[in-house]
């Protein structure tokens, strides 16, 4: 049987327990709120979407087909056709990268969030980058 604690020792133990609980609460609050005050860049891969596309275009011919579902010559022909129809680069994304985003999205079926992670852009930028393919009157076919 443990020895009986004096009232002074009981108060010291209770105070130690309270301090420990307060430390855990403080730690929990710090961990929970840290994303709000300690900003960490989300898209920080060494390989940007443009760099990844360049790697596909300059790499093994089968790799671009595996990732985007088209061969080199088809990719460049699509880029040329889009430019002939008036599609242009945006301030943040080239037409080639927009096309790659569109092809990657339909090839993989991934969410905009996952495609954004691959191309190192926000979901909003990804959505805006391929919307011209759906909204431009020349790209809409009726039949």
From TrEMBL:
- Pfam families hit by this protein: DUF8040 (PF26138)
Going by the entry's taxonomy, the superkingdom of the source organism is recorded as Eukaryota
Q: Which residues form the DUF8040 domain?
A: 44-131
Q: Which InterPro entries match?
A: DUF8040
Protein name per the record: DUF8040 domain-containing protein
């Amino acid at each position: 049987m443990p020895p009986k604690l004096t009232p002074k020792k009981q108060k010291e133990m209770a105070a130690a327990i309270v301090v420990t609980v307060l430390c855990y609460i403080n730690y929990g609050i710090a961990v929970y709120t840290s994303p709000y005050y300690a900003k960490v860049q989300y898209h920080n891969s060494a390989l940007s979407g443009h760099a990844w596309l360049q790697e596909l275009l300059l790499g093994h011919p089968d790799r671009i087909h595996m990732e985007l579902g088209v061969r080199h010559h088809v990719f460049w022909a699509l880029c040329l056709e889009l430019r002939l129809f008036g599609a242009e680069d945006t301030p943040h994304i080239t037409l080639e990268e927009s096309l790659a985003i569109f092809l990657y999205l339909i090839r993989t079926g991934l969410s905009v969030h996952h495609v954004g992670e691959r191309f190192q852009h926000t979901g909003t930028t990804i959505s805006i980058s391929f919307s011209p393919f759906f909204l431009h009157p020349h790209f809409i076919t009726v039949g």
